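Q: How do we represent a protein-ligand complex in a form that can be generated cell by cell?
A: Start from the inputs.
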Amino acid sequence: MRLSAYFLPTMKETPAEAQIVSHRLMLRAGMVRQASAGIYSWLPLGFRVLKKIEQIVREEQDRAGAQELLMPTIQAADLWRESGRYDDYGKEMLRIEDRHGREMLYGPTNEELITDIFRASVKSYRDLPRILYHIQWKFRDEVRPRFGVMRGREFLMKDGYSFDLDYEAARKSYNKMFVSYLRTFARLGLKAIPLEAETGPIGGDLSHEFIILADTGETGVFCHHDLLDYDVLAETVDYDGDLPPIVDFWTRYYARTDDKHEPEVFTAEVPEEKRVQRRGIEVGHIFYFGDKYAEPLGATVTRPDGSQTALHSGSYGIGVSRLVGGIIEASHDDDGIIWPEPVAPFKVGLINLKVGNDGCDALCEELYGTLSGASVEVLYNDRQDSPGAKFAEMDLIGLPWQLIVGPRGLKNGVVELKSRASGEREELSPESALARLTG
Ligand code: 5CA
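Then emit the C-alpha cells for the protein with 5CA bound:
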C-alpha cells in the first residue's frame, strides 16, 4: 500500500477525550473514529488489525474443534422471555420495535439464540458433543462507556457455546476452550492469565476470566507470580487427548479477580515474594452453566437408555475489538504503538527519505515490488514529508520493521532496517534486507 493513496488520518495532537494510552494512540494513529458514545468506526489501519485478531481467534477455535456459524445481531424479545432474561437484563439491553410493533433487541450475547437453533434440530446424544461459535457485533448499553474500544457499547465478540450430555462431557468442552484460549492469547503476543471469576448475568457456577496485566485495567488481579512465566506455545496440544493436566497446571495456584479475592487465603497460599497484585484487562471469559438455558427453553436430547435430559452447556467469549486496545496497552512506548508481528496491520514500513531522487525512488519501487510479490505487507511512505515527520509517523503506527532508503546510504549501497520493538538499526545491502523480511 502506498501511503500517498492510503486513508490514514493520523493526528499530531493528543485528543483531549482519551483517558488511556491505547485510546489516545488508536485515535492518533487513525485506527478508529468515534461515531457516538462507545460506538466506533474502524478506519482502514484499525480494521486490518481487527481482522488479524479475528483470524487468529478463528484458527484456534477451529483447531479446538469448534465450528463457525453466524447469527444475526437483532433478536426477538420472545426468545429472551423464555429464558427469563428479557426483564433481568435491564437497561443494558438495547430494545427495538419493528414496524409491526414486534419487540426486538440488539443482542448483548447469544445463549438463547444458539439454544433455540440447537433445540430445533438436535434430539439425540449421538449428535453430541458440539461447540459452535460466531464472531459478531454485540451491543450493551453500558452506563459508562469509556477507554475507547475497551469498554464500548457496540463491540466485536467471539462467542462460542458448547452442548453436551452431562457434566463430565461438558467439562471436556470447557477444558478445550480453556486450553485454546491460552494458545489464542499467546499467539496474539499476550501473556494472559486464567483467573477464577464471578459469572454475572451469564450465570452458572464455574467460570474463568482471562486477563492481561495492565495498570489501566478495570479488574483487580491477585495471583502467583509463576503463572506469568510459561510459554504455552512451546508444546502442541491434542484437543482429543488428556487436557485436565494442562488445566490443572494453570489452576493449581491462587489466581482470582477482585470479586473472588480472599486476602487470608491469598497470604496463606502464596509466599510473599511470589504475590502479584495488579490491575488487568479482561480479554476473555468462559462459563459453565449446565442447563440454565436448555431447561427453560426445553432443549433436551435422549440418553442412550431412551430417557430425556436437558443439554449441559457453557459459553466462551473473547473481546475481539477490546483486544486491539488491550494489545496496545501491553505494547507501546512514548513514541507510539509497537505491534506484535502476528497482528501488525503491515509488517514493514518502507520509508523513502528523498522522494524525487531517482536512485531512492527506483530502489524503493524495487523493494516495494519484491516485498509485495512475496506477500509481505508493506506500507510505503512515498510522500513528500520531512524525514522527521516520516519517522515519527512510522513510530506512531508501530509497524514491526522500518526499511529506510536515503541518498547517503544509497551511495554506499546500503539501506537501513529498524526494529520498532528494540529500536535497533542496522545498515545492510538491499538484498540482505529483503532476505531478512521475506524469510
Ligand atoms: N456469552 C458470554 C460468553 S460467550 C459473554 O457474553 N461473556 S462476557 O460478558 O464476559 O463477554 C465476553 C468478552 O467480551 C469479555 O471477556 C470482554 O473481553 C468482551 N466485552 C464485554 N463487554 C465489553 C464491552 N463493553 N466492550 C468491549 N468488550 C467487551
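The chain has 14 helices and 23 strands. Residues 167-187 form the longest helix (21 residues).
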